[in-house]
Design a protein that fits this description.
Shape: globular
Number of domains: 1
Order of helices and strands: EEEEEHHEHH
Largest sheet: 3 strands, antiparallel
Distance between the termini: 37 Å
Structural class: alpha+beta
Length: 108
């Protein structure tokens, strides 16, 4: 699967070039410690999954694991190449996020 941007909408495309779904805004939930992408999609759906998962982890005493989960919102214009790497390269979203955080610190 891959993402393509067409006329301001990001589409998820399957291996047969069929459009599976279009997104105006794409949100990712991942683990900052491992770089594992856990969920992507519409903001409301991902946020609901995130809050439920954080609650379960916290209830189980797994506070560090709960704190490691973050939601990455696509308020900015995403480069389809970058979001395809999020989807298709294990751990890439964590590496990308770490670099963005380092850039923020350097610019402060």
């Amino acid at each position: 699967m891959r993402f393509e941007e067409r006329h301001g909408t990001i589409y998820l495309i399957d291996e047969f070039d069929n459009i599976i779904r279009g997104y105006q805004k794409l949100v990712f939930c991942f683990d900052t410690e491992t770089g594992t992408l856990h969920k992507f999609g519409e903001k409301e759906v991902v946020a609901k999954w995130f809050h439920k998962t954080v609650q379960k982890l916290t209830s189980a005493g797994m506070n560090n694991e709960a704190k490691a989960l973050v939601i990455l919102d696509s308020d900015q214009c995403w480069d389809p190449e970058v979001i395809n790497r999020f989807l298709n390269t294990s751990g890439y979203i964590g590496t990308w996020w770490s670099k963005q955080e380092m850039k923020k610190l350097e610019n402060e």
